[in-house]
Prior knowledge:
The complex is a heterodimer of chains A (244) and B (549).
Chain A: H1 2-18, E1 21-25, E2 28-32, H2 38-45, E3 64-69, E4 76-79, E5 89-93, H3 115-119, H4 131-135, H5 142-151, H6 154-160, H7 169-173, H8 180-195, H9 200-210, H10 215-223, H11 226-234
Parallel strand pairs in A: 1-5
Antiparallel strand pairs in A: 1-2, 3-4, 3-5
Helix pairs in contact in A: 5-6, 5-8, 6-8
Chain B: H1 8-24, H2 34-44, E1 53-55, E2 65-67, H3 68-74, E3 77-78, E4 92-99, H4 103-114, E5 122-125, E6 142-143, H5 152-162, H6 169-189, E7 203-204, E8 214-215, H7 221-236, E9 240-241, E10 246-252, E11 257-263, E12 270-280, H8 304-311, E13 316-317, E14 322-329, H9 343-346, E15 351-352, H10 366-379, E16 384-385, E17 391-395, H11 398-404, H12 408-412, H13 414-421, E18 432-441, E19 444-446, E20 458-460, E21 465-466, H14 477-499, E22 505-506, H15 508-519, E23 527-528, H16 538-542
Parallel strand pairs in B: 3-23, 4-5, 4-12, 5-9, 12-20, 19-21
Antiparallel strand pairs in B: 1-2, 6-8, 7-8, 10-11, 10-22, 11-12, 13-19, 14-18, 15-17, 16-17, 17-18
Amino acid sequence: MADREAVEQEERTSLAEELGVRIYIMGKEYRVPAGLTIMKAMEYAGYKFIRGAGCRAGFCGACGTVYRKEGEYKLRFAVACQKLVEDGMFLVQLPFAPAPRVSYDLEKLRPTENVLLKLYPELARCVACNTCTKACPQEIPVMDYIQAALRGDIKRVAELSFDCIQCGLCSMRCPADIKHYHVAQLARRLYGRYLAPKAEHLAQRVAEIEAGRFDEELDRLTRMGKEELSKLYEARQIEEGVGV
Amino acid sequence: MITSGYPDSMRELIALVEATRPERLKTSPPRMSAKEREEILREWHPDYKAGTKRPLSIGPSKGELVPHEVADLLEAYPLISPEEVDLSQIDYDVDVLIIGGGGAGTVAALWAYYEGIKPERILIATKLRWGDSNSIMAQGGIQAADRPEDSPAIHYLDIMGGGHYTNKPELVRALVTDGPMIIKWHESLGVMYDKNPDGSFVEKHGGGTSRMRMHSAKDYTGMEIMRALRDEARNIGIPVVEFAPAVELLMDDRGQVAGAILFNLETSQYLVVRAKATVLATGGFGRLHIQGFPTTNHYGATADGLVLAYRVGAKLRDMDAVQYHPTGVAYPEALVGQLVTEKVRGMGAMPVNRHGEAFVYPLEPRDVESAAFIRECYGRGNGVETPTGMRGVWLDSPMIEELHGPGTIKRELAAMWRMFNRFGIDMAKEPILVFPTLHYQNGGVEIDEHGWTGVPGLFAGGEVEGGVHGKNRLMGNSLLDYNVFGRRAGISAARHAKVAKLGKLSLEHIVAYSKMLAEAGINNDRKAPLLLPEYRGERALARSLKIRI
Lengths: 244, 549
């Protein structure tokens, strides 16, 4: 009897060691192993995601998460698929941000100094508190691009915001109710459409294709069998370039 | 447990990589010959492993070999039965239904609109959020032969060789011919591709390319394209219903596909969509974890489209070939299987074994490169072992900084740098550990060059369709594929919708399919589509009760 109790005690101890991390999902305690991301830890605990999981690799912004750690006053931000659980983490996911965007016709807009402010007038309410920047799980200088937007510097907004995964955490924290990531999307498209120089070689190639310049060669290639094609393939000249 | 940076055992091995770096910067192993490529694939590529596939026992592609994981879904019973749904109550009555809200679906919607279908007569139905897809995760780039040194014909040859001449020629031709036009369309939508000061694109090599034609947007190429496409579709006002996967296609009494049954994941209600034309844009099968491999794919990549299409009589092709991306993360454990873009090798990083030796040409086609990594780890015992027992090879990323100057990685591979830095690894200074990961469904639903599946009313674009890449896709051709065939499927669907006349809606085809399954002796214990993979912990699942609440 005593042996069995000892074994059971040992099992309990090893389980407690294995599940060494306490996390609080919306306030409720779960014990999980160390070394898991927040997303995998929630699944370990028994959650099956419908919302709050997307690409699972840090690119889609579906799993924006806010948390505080025991004994800390500071609110922290992460994407659940790219952040390891830590002991004493109180967390909740914010899988949706109610931040309406403004529809526009890119062909009718021009990259003028006031275009961002015209579509998103609440930009002018920015008090430069930097809360947006602190909320960004991508560590983008959000406030800096909002300031650039106020100055009408579309190129700067586009460049600074480029790595944005559109999780919306910035806009959920903003005391001025700015929709940062929508402003940034607009700026990037204006930049790409109007300010970035056009690729002339591309326009030429499209014209050549439309004129049928490659048709005959492609006719011939599409009729070729494996033997003929493989001869051509093995004889290809590989263009010199980095990585080769 | 180490949760930041490399353990000492791995640091010691990194010293060997550093020691050989100066020499390796000067020279690279040669490309393999055709014979060497064939041999290494046969011996080391997972596709050639015995016992991993079986011939389909029923349906339009009966007898064709597919992975067990795929066969299990195709030889499975429907989730719903006709008695459960009332087809006389139509929730959405549209011209064009697009199933899937990733790249292909969004492109199809835009081109259906350009082709003259009113926005409110289009519906995108998607399982997760609009944009949650492999499209948004693509990092390295998109191919298009637009430089004077290049041509669609050279692109064609690269693709056919990379695919072992198994590709469908007319699809490859469409891909290479439309490529430059697609990039020009993106340019007009404001996609911020990497450009030189004169406006020309920065273009690089990918595995198996003979010309530099990889267009990129840092290493967020897929995200940049996807968010611009989605933004444009939002401007146009194309309706989207999220968290509503299709669980079955609808047909009519004339044998045409006529819409779908959607399932609201949050309320468990069904929705009936009647559509004159339907585009399947459901993506691939990474989350089936073929042969137990980890995957780069998004949460919803569960092959639903294959199941739906197969039940209405569409043929599949090249489903025996699975793409394993050579460079999935092998360390840290929390990131295992996630993608390290091929652009890292495109910019000069070299694969290196545990002794610090280069062992393979860095940019072979993906299947060959993956096979070489597997041989190095399991055939030659030259892999690096992690604390959890996983093996991998080094990818010597600091070479990029040597070749292009300090700061290049943080600037041009921002996503990769950020991902590793979050786990205490600075890939500008330390190499990263990689091993092949399940990446792409090479095959899929057979289509013609117009994106038609051969079943009246059903079109397909993107990863769900097959034939474009044959048995092996090259880097940068999936982003191109979803644009080219998403567009063609959208246009074809729009044209079809303008003339189509629908009969009475029916689910008889699933009754017939179930009968066929029963006659083949398949037990009614498997259901499909899968919709979402199961990742709940074993301990939690063991105590799960099915109580309705």
